[in-house]
Each structure stands twice: as structure tokens, then as C-alpha cells.
Amino acid sequence: MTAPQIDLKAYLAEQENKSFLRFLTCGSVDDGKSTLIGRLLYDSKMLFEDHLSALEKDSKKFGTDGDNIDFALLVDGLEAEREQGITIDVAYRFFATDKRKFIVADTPGHEQYTRNMATGASNSDLAVVLIDARKGVLTQSKRHSYIASLLGIRHVVLAVNKIDLVGFSEEIFDDIVKDYLSFAQQLGFKTLLSIPISARYGDNVIARSPRMPWYDGPALLDHLNTVDVDTAVAGKPFRMPVQWVNRPNLDFRGFSGTISAGHVKPGDAVVVAASGRTTKVTRIVTMDGELDDAVAGEAVTICLADEVDISRGDVLAPASARPEVSDQFSAHILWMAEEEMLPGRQYLLKVGAKTVPATVTELKHKDDVNTFEHLAGKTLALNEVGYGNVSLSMPIAFDPYAENRDTGGFILIDRFTNGTVAAGMIDFGLRRATNVHWQALDVNKNARAGLKTQKPAVLWFTGLSGSGKSTIANLVEKALFADGRHTYILDGDNVRHGLNRDLGFTDADRVENIRRVGETSKLFVDAGLIVLVSFISPFRSERRMARELVGAAEFIEIFVDTPIEVCMQRDPKGLYEKARAGEIKNFTGISSPYEEPEHAEITVKTQGRTADACAAEIVAYLRGQGFVP
Predict the structure, then answer these.
(1) Are 323 and 239 in contact (CB under 8 A)?
(2) In this structure, are residues 569 and 576 in contact, taking their beta carbons and an 8 Å threshold?
(3) 321, 535, 621, 625: which has the highest count of C-beta atoms within 10 A?
(4) Where do you find CATH 2.40.30.10 in the chain?
(5) Confidence of residue 80 (pLDDT cuts 50, 70, 90)
(6) Which CATH number fits the domain 445-624, given the four candidates 3.20.20.70, 3.40.50.300, 3.40.630.10, 3.30.420.40?
């Protein structure tokens, strides 16, 4: 008897036309997330023979279910995960049924890995929130549900797992569902289905279980096969962030990207959102030929009727339904870094293919994920969620995250480590007052500096307390003043008596302290002066921000390099002694860090040298570089 012949083309066409669902499993530690995914893969016959053999072998070595197969090992791939029986990283798995294709993200339950859970949620349409029937709704169950809602997930399955360990109790199931619904009703989920399951034994996972006749809802897989999550994106206005300007030769110019919402066809009028330039679509090109219509989720190259200036990061949209364009907006922020978020510190913001410098200018509040209360706070720590204002170096096109997750979601990147430190969800744009404009002036910086026969500059003295910054800066100014130069000193202690008298010495206040001084220095440079800034300024990020305010050619970083032991011996104000006694908090070098400059224009080593010699070295540099004749 011969095997039945398979029409390969028909089979591939059938697979291609199946709907697609991305979902994640989340919840607290050891609620059975990995076991559930393993059971889905096993029962849906998506495992090869070598996978099954390896699973049986690993179950004997790492398993937690005696001689039975431990399904969690299918997705807990890291050695550390298997040894501890927990999930650390996000694991993605693919499987399919006759009706739909799936990508499932298995996310960790530990609080310290909340950022990993957020990563999985950012790409998902549905969340399966698992709860251990023996433990009920826990803090992490609420935290993950809140983050899922924040990241735009509108479809949730509440899977009350390990129901077998409580005797398949309907009463316990009902109590957990009632407790969860009282919390989740404020999260705005569109659908929320509660299912009692046993991931270990497969009850209500693939098919309805006879051991719970009191439950009359669908099995988990039946619901995943039928839940509708596709219509929302397709029905929204057209959006396509440009990822690449496609110019293979002189005869072809197109703009490539993935359509994030809506649909487009040749002849449609579109606009480059940031510039406002309008044109028409002439062709929609793909590797498989041209299309008469393209919809959300498709990667295409769009050709336009006019030679419009478009670059990577621009957004194409309908002329009649444009996204917002602004350099300021309010947003929810999930902080994902060990080092806390500091308002005023400059980061890189990436939305779509666009990357621009940005700062969180104000944190309005932090969110309590258990009570939804707004808590006061100036900073965000690891895994905390807050709401604040973000300012960019240039306007960008965006939509509110609730309307479009692709054009409304962003990440913040540390400028030094290039690590992702936060995920953000734009709420709405902030518009500046329309009556505020740059005023053109006839007397400019060059004219003012020419009158003084000098090049304006910022001499930024940085170093520990007691290093000699103020003393050396004072001597440099005396020498320049005697030579007829026009100068001004901004000293840390003096400024804190006036401009910055409202600031303390926390990291957040130090950042704001330097931001204000940097802006003030910029005004002095515009006046044509040589301004000497003497501040500890312990963080490289803020010194870099000050440099970028005036430009590299007008910023001279001077590292007054004095070992802390010498500073402590000098201790002219008695500060180190008080800091070591615990009388002064957040003291640089003792209880707060100092980040030494990596590429200072001048490094002055003071140990064994007089202050006059150090000042003379700096003046000689200024003459050599042409700042003074």
C-alpha cells in the first residue's frame, strides 16, 4: 500500500493563509508557565522524535515529576533554569494547529526579571496569566497583568493551574476568579476568560476535562484558536515607518518597511509625517512581485510619484489621518536598568527606526501596581513604572500607544553602555506655546567675542571635593583678567546660594544642578565670555550634556586629578570627616560615586605641585589653542 500523495503547493498555501497569534505566559514564580507551554507543544504533536528522546533523558536528570515527563524542560533551555527549576530569560516557541499558527513567549516569574516579561509582552496580542490554585492571586500576578495592560495587551486568559492539587475544587476556582476580576476590571482588557487547568496532566489544555464537569467553558487551545485579535490593527489609519531607502540603481527609488497599521494601495495620497510633504503611491513592490494592496504586517517597498526627501526613521501616513509630530510628550515608563532613572539625564530614544537624544524632564508620579495609586517620586528604580514628560532634541512622528503600539512605543538607551534602560508607551504629545519663537538678534556671539578679542569657551573644572578646583579656577581667572580677557566664574557653592538653592545632593538633584549650570554656561558663551565652571559634576553623562549644549569646540574639560586620600587630608571644609561619620549623605567619593573623565582636554595632577603651576598649565593651553592671544 503506497503512502498518500501530498500536494506540497496546496499545503504551503494553506499554512500561509492561516491566521497568526502571538501570546505569552506570565505570572508568579512556579505557577507552571513552562509546563503549560511544554504540554501544548507535546499534545499538539509539534515535537520531533529527537526532541522527545532528549526530553525523556532530561526529565530523568532535571525533572521534578518523578518518572514522568517534565514538560517545563522543553522551554527552560538555560542550564541555570534547569538546575533551579525556574525561567530566567524569555523563551519563544512556535507551534500550529489546523486553524492557526502561534508564537508563544515563556516569560520569567521572578520580580528581578520583570524587564524580561515586558520584552515578551511588547510583541504579544494575548496574555495567559497563570495562577497556582494553592496560592491564589499574588503580587507578581498583579504586576504582570498590569504590565501586560500597559503594553497594550487587550486579551487575557486567567489560567488557574494545578487545580488537581486542590481536588479540582470549583469553590477555590471561583474565589480566585473573583479576586482577580476585582483587580483586573480597571485594566481595560477587551476579553478575559477564566479556565481551570492542570498543565501537568493536560486537563482543559487541549480538550475539556471530564474531571471538572462544573466547568462549561472552552479548553485553552480552543480559545486560542478562535479569539479575534486581528481586526483592530487592520482597521486603523495607514502607518509605515521607513526602515531603508531602497536605491539599487538610478532607475529605482523606493522606501522599504513593515506596515504597522492600516492598508495602502497605488494611487493613495500619503504624507511624510515629520515634514508634511505629500505625494502619491505609484507602486507597491515585494520579492514576489507587485501588489494591488498591502496591509498591516506586510514588509513592502513603496514607490512614490515625487522626489520627496525621506530617510530612515520617517513615517508614511495618509494625508487625511496624520500622526502627531512633536519634540515633547507624556509617557508611561517601565524602568529596566540597575542604575536608577534620573530626570534631566540624556538618553537615546528609539521609536521605530528613529533614534534621537532625549531626556525625562519630569517624573509626575510612580505607579503602585497593586493599588493603582500614584506615588510621589523623582526617580525610577529597576522594574518600577512611572509617568512623566519626555523631551527630544528634534520633533518626531508618533501615535499614542493605545492607538498604535509600533509608532507609540519606544525604548531608552544608555548613551555610554548602549544598553536598553527603559521601555516607554507614549500617552499624548505636549505642544509648546505658539507665541514662543527664537528671536533674531543683530549682535551675535561672534560679534561679542570679536569686540573682546578672544574666543568664548567653557572651562569645566571637575574633580573631588578638596581637589583644588575652585582655587585653580580662581587663579586662572586672575591671570586672564590681568591679560584683559573677559571672564566669569560659576562656582558650585556660590551657585547653590541662588540659582540652585532648591536642590539637594541626591543623584537626581545633582543631574538637575549640572543641567541648569550647563544652560547658564551656554548663555555666558553666547555673550562672548570665557566662563570658568567649578563643580564636582560627578557623572560623565551630565558633563557630556554640558559639552553638547555649547559644542565640542567651545568646551574644555579640565580634570583636577587629586587622589581621594589627599583630598581627605586637606578636607578644607571638614566635609569628609562628617561624611564618614554619617552626618552628610550622598557625599561624592564616600557614599556617592565619582566618574572620572575618560577624554578630558586637560588633566591637571595636583599632588606635589603648587596651584599656581597648575593654573599656568591651563593658561598655556588656552594660548596654544588660540582662545586668547
Answers:
(1) yes
(2) no
(3) 535
(4) 238-318, 324-429
(5) very low
(6) 3.40.50.300
Which burial class, exposed, middle or buried, applies to 430 when counting CB atoms under 10 A from its CB (0-12, 13-18, 19+)? middle
**CATH number assigned to the domain covering 13-230:** 3.40.50.300
What is the greatest pairwise CA distance in the chain? 107
DSSP annotation of 92: E
d(CA 398, CA 258): 16
Fold of 324-429: Elongation Factor Tu (Ef-tu); domain 3 (2.40.30)
Chain region(s) in the chain for CATH 3.40.50.300? 13-230, 445-624
Residue 391's SS3 state is strand
Interatomic CA distance for residues 17 and 462, integer angstroms: 63
Span 392-403, average pLDDT: 90
Residue type at position 284: I
Question: 252 is written with which cell numbers?
Answer: 529605482
Give the whole-angstrom CA distance, residue 524 versus residue 555.
12
d(CA 188, CA 207): 29
Q: Which residue has the higher pLDDT, 368 or 438?
A: 368
Q: At what angle do helices 507-526 and 540-550 cross, to 10 degrees?
A: 20
CA 538/CA 460 separation, integer angstroms: 12
Domain 238-318 fold: Elongation Factor Tu (Ef-tu); domain 3 (2.40.30)
Catalytic residue positions, numbered: 537
In degrees and rounded to multiples of 5, residue 277 shows phi and psi of -70, 130
What would the pLDDT profile of 83-105 be if each residue is shown by its tens digit? 433 333 567 778 888 888 888 88
Q: How many helices (H) and strands (E) does the chain have?
A: 18, 28
Closest by CA to 243, choosing from 399, 353, 127, is: 353
* Span 333-389, pLDDT tens digits: 999 888 898 888 889 999 988 999 999 988 999 988 777 788 988 899 988 899 999
Q: From residue 464, give the alpha-carbon distance in Å to each of 459, 461, 499, 544, 613.
A: 16, 10, 22, 18, 19
